[in-house]
Amino acid sequence: MKTSLEVEYWVVDDDGDLVPPDSLLDVCEGIDPEFVEPMLEIKTTPCTSMAELRAELRDRIATVVDAAREQGKRLVPLATPLDVPPSEIPYREKASTDLQRRIVGPGFDDARVCAGTHIHFEQSNVVDQLNALTAIDPAFALVTSSSHYRGEPILECARPYLYRRSCYGGCPEQGQLWPYVDSVAEWERRLEDAYETFRERAIERGVDPEAFNDAFDPYEATWNPVRLRRAMPTVEWRSPDAALPSQVLQLAEEVRSIVSRADARGTAVVDGDRDRVGGSGDEPDADSVPLPAFDTVEEVTDAAIRDGLENSNVRTYLRGLGFTPSEYEPLTAQLPDGRLTERRAKRLRLAAARRLEADLEERRVRA
Known about the structure:
Distance between the termini: 25 Å
Low-confidence stretches: 273-282
Radius of gyration: 20 Å
Helix content: 40-55%
Structural class: alpha+beta
Mean pLDDT: 93
């Protein structure tokens, strides 16, 4: 199963201030601008093995890090910039972004402070892949990298809260986790319904219908934690924060293993009475990968956002899926509990940048 990664990182100068990446976007393949100025995205090609994925991601990040140091810049692996309010993070000029702001409303500005990781899996048994990734959703707690917003500690996993509950709180079909499906056709019906609802909301807010049609299609008008991508074509998991390369790769390897098992063996959703419901609508095989009821997924996701790995139910849930929470050290554990001054937030961004550089160097030495 070919797998690819996309990781978003903040760019800062040697004082810890957010700055545009500028020429860093041109240093190698797979470096793209993001929809806000002081962020870039580092992407891999679809890789057939974890060894290939590890080598390519580390090589590309290292290339950008080295070029950044020559320019007095650093890459910061934090899910939020800790203290900088959305109003101080400029958007790049992009018609669809402007339309999103008009359609979604003021909460959309909170997306400006969110940096994440996306994992793409080559489409195979799509229903089982979608359902497995849905069940896996709370695993973002394994690599959560920021608990702060506007300098205040808000929740252990700040980014999923800001992105899902605040940014897309008024448009839940565009940004929330969707329930399990029995078929690809069911997923595509949901896409169409979400698209029509989004379009109606846009027209109510004065957006020209033709402008909306030019900017969005059903596959590109949702930003949910799990997405079916037609253009790639992949199944995409968008839940994790930006994190250290080693953390991203550790999580990607475990998620890939679970999704591969689900792809090969099928999935069966276990309801509250322990009866099995086949994920693809067929009678489940005895060897199917069991998935918790969707209500349980939502409950654990809420607990993960609030408490991260400190919550024993979250740890138990993740162990049940095949993860080993004790092997992860989220960057939030390195952050203070209290309010951050601007000066301290800058120091913490630089400290995170140094950890990223040390993470890369440690792997270079091992290699």
